[in-house]
Amino acid sequence: MGSCPGAEKPWDGCSFVLSAMRLLCSPALYGKVLLGPGKALLQLSFYWKRGLFCSPTDEYQGSAQAQSYKNLCLLLRAETLLVKLGNHHCFGDHEAKEEGDVAEARCKKWDMCAAEATTSLLQVEENFSACLARMDALIFKPLLQSEPSDQKGKENFKLFLLLNDQFQALWNLTEENYRIVKQKCSTSESFCIQDIYIVWKGDLFLSLYIQYFVTFANYVVVHGFEHATKSKSEAWKHHKTVLKQFLTDFTTETSMSLALYTVLHKPVRDHVEQYILLLNKLNEVLQEGSEKDIVTSAVKEYVKLKSFISQVLDEACFTKTLWKSLGYKFTDMLCVPERRLLEDSKNLPISASTNRSDRILLFDDVLVLIQGNSFQSFDLKLVWVDETCREKSAPGPYGLRIITPEETFVLSAKDPQMKAVWQWKLNQAIRQALNGKRDFPLWGKTGEGTEPSSCRFFTYVFRLESKFKNASYEGEWHWGKPHGKGTLKWRDGRNHVGDFKEGLEHGFGICLVPRRSEDRYDCYKCHWYEGKMRGYGICEYGNDMVYKGYFKDDVRQGFGILENFSAEHPFKYTGQWENDKKNGYGVWEDKDRGERYIGTWLDDHRHGQGIVVTQSGVCYQRTFHADKMVGSGILLLEDDSVYEGNFTQDLTFVGKGKLSFANGFILEGTFTNKSGQGLQTQGILNTSNEQLDERITKAQLGLKEFPVEKRWKGIYDQFLEFIHSGCKEEMEESFTGFHIQTSKELRKSQEYLFCQRGTEDVSWKTEDILEELVQHHELGSLQSYLEKALKSSLHPLGKLLKALTIAFQATYSGIGANRHLLTMAQEEVKYYAKKIWEFYQGLLHLALEQKGQLPAKCVDGEVSDQKAYSVVLPLILPCFYPELFMLYMLYHEREDDLYCQGIVDLSLFPDIKLLEFLDVQKHLWPLKDLTLTTNQRRSLIKDKCFLSATECLQKLITTVDPREKLLILQKTYEEIESTVSRVVEKDYKLPMDDLLPLLMYVVSRAKIQHLGAEIHLIRDLMDPTNQGGLYDFLLTALESCYEHIQRMRLHQRENCHVTRTS
Amino acid sequence: MMAIRELKVCLLGDTGVGKSSIVCRFVQDHFDHNISPTIGASFMTKTVPCGNELHKFLIWDTAGQERFHSLAPMYYRGSAAAVIVYDITKQDSFHTLKKWVKELKEHGPENIVMAIAGNKCDLSDIREVPMKDAKEYAESIGAIVVETSAKNAVNIEELFQGIMIRTVCSSSLASWCWLCRRLLVSSELAAGLGHAAVPAVLGGVCLHRDSRL
């Protein structure tokens, strides 16, 4: 900025001298001009160089000014152009003096002011317009006709065309507005602010001027005028001679280009100053008001424009000089019309630490380090300047650390001032590069908006050897590293879209990896942690397999489900993974064979104890060794017979074994199976046993082998870790799995980039969850809170329950419904309740801690278990009920059959007969309820007595909650009691002697299917504190009825037997 | 708050011997402020203080009819004590009692406390079972024995006190001497119970104090 001091100083009445000065600033002109000019000019330049223009008005009043003016005119001889130019100033000055008198009458109306302003504007514009016309005729037209043929020239010509376009636009705008106002002037006397179009249409004018000068500067930078003057076209050659007559002093080629440069920018530039003068005058005479404000701000804008123009031109000259001084090697690569040199280490010494660069160039878009014949350039958008040397290799006292995506180096200056200037210039250049707009800030300006943001968004291709080599990253950056959201793309088609942190994948991301042989991709939607997959993810493999589960260090680890959807060998594995392989407890379903393996795994093989259930209901437990069955096992057949010994996978007996038949016969011996000969055996058949022990036929598998605490550890571990890590919102999905809505959306579209939180009516942000936990930890609201939480697909507890449901179903649904698995399943559900309660406690503890409240002292395990059963179990039971009840039904199948037959028998009895049969005391019979219609005999009426109790008991199957079932039982009793009280007409407390027969009556009338399964489910899952209490008693009473009905049937059968044999 | 110890007690005995009457009588004079729900006379509870504890009796009635005998195990499983009731005016009921004792010994819970109650002692003039027979029988099986009258509220409290002391005999307050089959009660507990109650069930102090402890 030092090169054009005049630009900033508004010198009244001395614009012309200033224009001359402008010429002088250019060193190229300096020599040439001084050859021809008179002494005055010499003096001018002398004074100027010494900075003696502090009060030019005094010194250059009168003769000096006039002289210099004349001299310059002579000097340039471009009368057609420059005399006009001069005229402006002369007229301007004259007017100014004349109007000095006018200015006294400031009180004049706006009309007057506007009229005057309009008149002077018209005058100025008229001259300018004429000037532009001459520029067009003498310079643009001839140059446009001479399109060069060489490559370089063509490129420049394109720029010239652009310049012409801008010029024409500017000219047209001036002409057009001038004409309109002129017209108005001739017809009307009244004027308004709209007529001062340079104010009213200020933006349009400003932008056209800016565009013109920017284009002009681009043309200057590429040495456009030099090339143009050398044009070989005939038209130009001819024209050149004509032009030369005007520009006599510019006889050489160089001076010719200089003259062109001058005549193409100077008049325009000076015209801007004319505007400023004019507006300033107008402003002075205006009174305070909205119009004045508008004019004031317009003046400001034009002053800015003026300074903009001078800076643009300065930079263009500076850059042009650089290109001239650099070798072709560099200019070919670096020279772009729009690029501007901002600083050069030759001007302002600084050196780079690495590769000992000899020159550092700061452009408006790149930073270039030159060393010998090579150079390195860094896009400013990805350059960070760090002055606080935070790393070990401190950049020295006056160093600046330059951080770029792949390289970091230090620029060291000799002194703090130098460092400060470079730092400021670098930061300003970066900021402007980021904004995509040049704004020429004032030196030293600091504060808001003057520093470049450290977070950027940009695309970059990694070149150096690293994890990301050859990948292009498009996204957010922070201090030289991908940070925030972004996309990485490799040439082989691999790409990663997601969150980054300090240069590594971190957070959620979607990664596509092409498969080697096929034209398909593995698609990972997963959480990353410091560059590696960790936490919950979904991987859709290109071979139709899908993995949903946890990862660690890029491999499958923890709980996960792998499902093969292809038609060939479809399977599903639900269980534990270690090091990318099936390891630990897991369930494998072979969908082709209709088999399910429940057991332990080692490196993708069945290994250790395992249970196999098949479609046909057969079930066996064995030891496996690398997928092979070893040793002997127990085979539980569908017809209740049991085989203990060795057998093959297709269930043929081999070697020593013991086969126990359902009728009690036991065959013990050695079995062989030669092909085509069927099963052969040698052994002893024991027929002495009456019936096979229930302990064998109802044997429960897997209890010792797979203790409930060791099942699904992978699920619990993640939640535990989540709590231990402090329940960070951003880690929530990584630990507990995707939100259901999210994963649905992910499935819908592979291009879908980032998770969007689904909206439920309640906020399930982690902090809100913790807050709510604290609010609801009293027992009253706890129940409803937990119910809501467990139903939500976004609450961690809800997600935990969901995961457990999936694991449970994978084991016990479908072919897993086998009565030998009942205890395993029942234990598991109870354990879930216990774990969920534990996690709830953990969350609550954390929430209280975060609120600064001291969590209550840890309650002992027994109380905690009790809570789990009384609070949590009823809430989670609905999720497991279908599978669990199915297991109970299978387990109690035979008893239930017997009971059903009993019920059928009893249902044939009319009411009175049944009461009699069950020994209900006569005075308790509700005979009044037996209303008779004609043709009915009382003794034949059915289903009328104790109807209310019967109907109540039938509701037992309408709920899955053991608590509610027990309540129904209690109500049933109350109904019985109230009926009896009605009959005996007083409060009657039923002793068991009376109650049991009545209850039996009600049970036999209620005809509940699978009553055995119901009773046992209630007993197993009810709150253990009920033990020995009222509900236990009621349930026992019900159970005894159930048993009794079965036995009645047995007795009948035996009696039949006896009578038949006798 | 005092700790509550729950005590499941089941009632066995023929129909008509007054099983539920005994319980009704026992429960009638309620110590509780809040009356716990019951199932008629079939299931009742009563809370009684004992030392610094509260003992809650959960009393399960059973059906006395012969045809329901086979269902009894469901009711007495998990019981701490069984009260077997006979009618002193009916020899048959004493026979049934013996059957119950036998069954309990074979299939009942281990260490179940048995208490024999000869009910209807207000009708001793038509007595069929001599008191001596009952005492000797009880002695032979190590059971508590009392003759009660539900009608006149005789020995009802004492019966349940005895059960309570027996069931807590593993605690520091009382211990059971297996040689002389007597209960050793600390003075503290005895004071808590009231002196009158203890000798009615026990009498004397045992010399074999260390024999089983």
What does this entry look like structurally?
- Chain A: One of its GO terms (cellular component) is cytoplasmic vesicle.
- Chain A: InterPro entries: Alsin, Alsin-like_PH, DBL_dom_sf, MORN, PH-like_dom_sf, VPS9, VPS9_dom_sf.
- Chain A: One of its GO terms (molecular function) is small GTPase binding.
- Chain A: Pfam families: MORN, PH_alsin, VPS9.
- Chain A: It comes from Gallus gallus.
- Chain B: One of its GO terms (biological process) is Golgi to plasma membrane protein transport.
- The complex is a heterodimer of chains A (1062) and B (213).
- By secondary structure, chain A is of the alpha+beta class.
- In chain A, 50% of the residues lie in helices and 19% in strands.
- Chain A has 32 helices and 27 strands.
- In chain A, the strands form 3 sheets. Chain A has a 19-stranded antiparallel beta sheet.
- In chain A, helix 28 packs antiparallel against helix 29 (962-984).
- The longest helix of chain A has 37 residues, at 151-187.
- Chain A is elongated and about 145 Å long.
- The relative contact order of chain A is 0.03.
- Chain B is of the alpha/beta class and 213 residues long.
- Helices cover 31% and strands 25% of the residues of chain B.
- Chain B contains 7 helices and 8 strands, in the order βαββαβαβαβαββαα.
- Chain B has helices at residues 19-28, 72-76, 91-107, 131-141, 156-167, 187-193, 197-201, and strands at residues 3-13, 43-50, 53-60, 81-87, 113-119, 144-147, 174-177, 182-185.
- Chain B has a 6-stranded mixed beta sheet, sandwiched between helices. A two-stranded antiparallel ribbon of chain B has the order 7-8.
- In chain B, strand 2 and strand 3 form a beta hairpin.
- Chain B is globular, with a radius of gyration of 16 Å.
- Chain B starts with a strand and ends in a 12-residue tail after the last helix.
- Residues 170-182 and 186-213 of chain B have low confidence and may be disordered.
- The interface between A and B is medium-sized, with 27 and 31 residues.
